[in-house]
Specification:
This is DUF885 family protein. Among the domains are: about 10-50 and about 370-465, no CATH class; about 60-150, no CATH class; about 165-295, no CATH class. It contains 25 helices and six strands. The protein has helices at about 45-50, 60-80, 85-90, 100-120, 130-150, 165-175, 180-190, 195-210, 215-230, 245-255, 260-290, 305-315, 320-345, 350-360, 370-385, 440-445, 450-460, 465-470, 480-490, 495-520, 525-535, 540-555, 560-580, 585-595, 605-610; strands at about 5, 15-20, 90, 395-400, 410-415, 425-430. The strands form two sheets. The protein has a four-stranded mixed β-sheet with strand order 2-4-6-5, covered by helices on one side. The protein has a two-stranded antiparallel ribbon with strand order 1-3.
């Protein structure tokens, strides 16, 4: 059984805390990372709650209790199965690492099947309409989880974004160390790494015996990651500390021990790293170096690959067949090319892609001080949010500089109320966001993008926890792009060059959809995919090759954003049609985001309830 860990996160070099997106700023505690901007009165939850529909009559208590017990047991099964997942949720797992062995997989499937049998015994007729909606979501997601287990081998054992050498470092960094006993537990985790890697290698061998291996680009990228992990002290003669040593020393210093005690623990930590983690990393690197992997790979070449690929597309929200998705992507790409040609005043009689690349090269702009500019931009957009949302979350957002040279990019870290962690947008200070992504990524990942998406769902107490937590099931992948376009109406872009990059983002996502389905459904080879990419986008040859490698490594992943964005836009259009004069776009946005990870196949059911509740 897992327990929530009462960890408080310390935030350093914090730039700005935006709480202006809620009406009443939360009381600031001593651990608050910085000062907050004041909130406009119009954004207070109190000011908007009164206009919501009156709550439905309470359902029978035994139905509520039975549903809550079912959902809580599902939650517990998921986190007990994966300590890595529990770590993301700031929970202290009983076991060291995920058990990757066959016995655990059988146990996990058995527990999911038992939950499915329990769900079939529920009396749907006793539920309120909203309870039925969430119960249907539970049944759908539970069934899909069982189906995804059948695609375990087809889910590659390693890729550029999903490999245990990367996951274990993230998990170690998240491990709280508040005492000497905690530090010893931290070292025990490191000592258990060889066992984890042994199971990981066994799964790679099992997949290889079924002729299921990722493309060679994945092998090369993971080897590069391992080389990076092995490059610093104490793994090499380098004076610079490795990422894990830097984390370990930070945890040790924070204990504020006597120098002699600290030195003893530091030497034990060094010995543990050299005796356990170093051999495991080296052995995995050797095994991958010897592994023979295909240059190109698509799902049609794998046993069961076609069925798994279609399942992954459905999990991403696909409402039509993979073949129809491919054609939709092509049509959208053509339409966007026409829009871009007009917006950028390109010559329609000349090939599109070379002109677009020339425009991009001549329109490069990046802020000199990305942190300052990010603060200014988000403060401005923050003040505009009440124009687009009926109510807003109270969860604060922190903009923080990233000093970790091993993470040369910017990203959003979700808030966790259990450890008083706000949402954090980490900005790389050494390498600002690529010129094609500024300020798109800022709005996509923070406001009005992912932070609003995450915070509104997490604060919806009527939403079951399995839908509130994206660590269990993903939120709609298309919202960040919808948010980037919404930022146009919030005065987020300062000139036409910045604004037109919204078109480029949508073009890129449509391209990803066509390439993803082209490679994994129609078996496009590398040359065909490369030609299509270069002829239809602003990406150059090197960028196209990288994109193709990534799509081969993560089937359906790059298609998800375009699929989800179309679902959201179609749903909003349908809501406007059905609600008629009662349609309130601001309320629709707030209410939709508050549904968290609700599956796209249930959007229409939710919309029926939403329309009927409009005043």
């Amino acid at each position: 059984m897992l327990m929530r860990h009462p960890l408080l996160l310390s935030l350093f070099t914090c730039i700005v805390l935006l709480t202006g997106c809620q009406a009443k700023p939360k009381p600031q505690t001593d651990s608050s990372p910085t000062t907050a901007t004041s909130a406009p009165a119009s954004t207070t939850p109190a000011a908007t709650t009164n206009s919501k529909a009156a709550p439905a009559a309470l359902p029978p208590r035994n139905v509520r209790e039975a549903l809550n017990a079912l959902y809580e047991d599902y939650w517990q099964v998921r986190v007990d199965h994966s300590p890595a997942l529990a770590s993301r949720l700031a929970m202290a797992p009983d076991q060291m690492w995920d058990d990757l062995g066959p016995e655990e997989r059988v146990r996990y499937r058995t527990q999911l099947n038992e939950l499915q049998l329990r769900s079939k015994e529920m009396k749907v007729s006793d539920m309120t309409p909203q309870q039925r909606l969430y119960f249907n979501a539970f049944q759908l997601l539970l069934t899909r989880q069982l189906q995804l287990e059948q695609c375990r081998l087809q889910t590659y054992q390693f890729s550029y974004a999903n490999s245990w050498n990367h996951t274990l470092v993230d998990m170690l960094e998240r491990t709280p160390v508040d005492s000497i006993q905690d530090f010893h537990h931290y070292l025990d985790l490191i000592a258990a790494i060889p066992g984890l890697f042994s199971q990981w290698q066994a799964n790679i061998v099992e997949a290889r015996s079924a002729a299921i291996l990722p493309p060679d680009s994945a092998r090369r990228e993971v080897i590069a990651q391992l080389d990076q992990q092995l490059s610093g002290y104490p793994f090499s003669d380098s004076a610079a500390p490795s990422r894990i040593w830097r984390d370990l020393q930070g945890k040790l210093r924070a204990l504020n021990l006597y120098p002699q005690s600290e030195a003893l623990l530091e030497e034990k930590a060094r010995s543990t790293l050299l005796n356990y983690m170093l051999p495991a990393l080296r052995q995995m690197r050797f095994d991958l170096q010897e592994l023979k992997t295909p240059t190109d790979q698509n799902m049609q070449q794998l046993q069961g690959g076609d069925a798994c690929y279609r399942l992954w597309l459905a999990d991403a929200g696909a409402q039509v067949t993979a073949e129809e998705l491919h054609e939709q992507g092509k049509r959208e790409l053509t339409a966007l090319q026409k829009d871009i040609t007009k917006a950028l005043n390109l010559d329609p009689g000349v090939p599109f892609a070379p002109q677009l690349r020339a425009w991009v090269a001549s329109s490069r702009s990046a802020p000199d001080d990305v942190l300052t500019q990010a603060r200014i931009r988000l403060q401005q957009v923050n003040q505009q949010l009440p124009k687009a949302f009926a109510y807003l979350p109270g969860t604060p957002l922190v903009i923080q500089g990233n000093k970790d040279k091993l993470r040369e990019f910017s990203w959003y870290q979700e808030p966790l109320a259990e450890i008083n962690r706000p949402g954090i947008y980490w900005i790389d200070k050494n390498n600002p966001p690529g010129v094609l992504r500024w300020p798109l990524d800022l709005y996509r990942e923070s406001l009005p993008g992912r932070h609003l998406q995450v915070a509104l769902a997490q604060e919806n107490i009527r939403l079951p926890e399995f839908l509130r937590t994206s660590a269990l099931h993903d939120y709609p992948a298309g919202w960040p792009t919808v948010a980037a376009r919404l930022a146009l109406s919030l005065n987020g872009y300062q000139n036409s060059a910045e604004a037109n990059r919204v078109f480029l983002l949508e073009l890129e996502e449509a391209l990803n959809l066509v390439l993803d389905t082209g490679i994994h459904l129609f078996q496009w080879n590398r040359e065909l995919a490369l030609t299509y990419c270069q002829d239809n986008s602003f990406l150059d040859r090197a960028d196209c090759l990288t994109r193709i490698d990534r799509i081969m490594q993560r089937p359906a992943y790059f298609a998800a954003a375009a699929i989800s964005r179309d679902n959201i836009e179609d749903l909003q259009e349908k809501a406007a049609d059905e609600a008629g004069s009662k349609f309130d776009a601001n309320r629709w946005r707030s209410d939709f985001l508050s549904q968290g990870a609700l599956p796209a196949s249930l959007y229409n059911e939710w919309l029926d309830l939403w329309v009927s509740a409009q005043p």
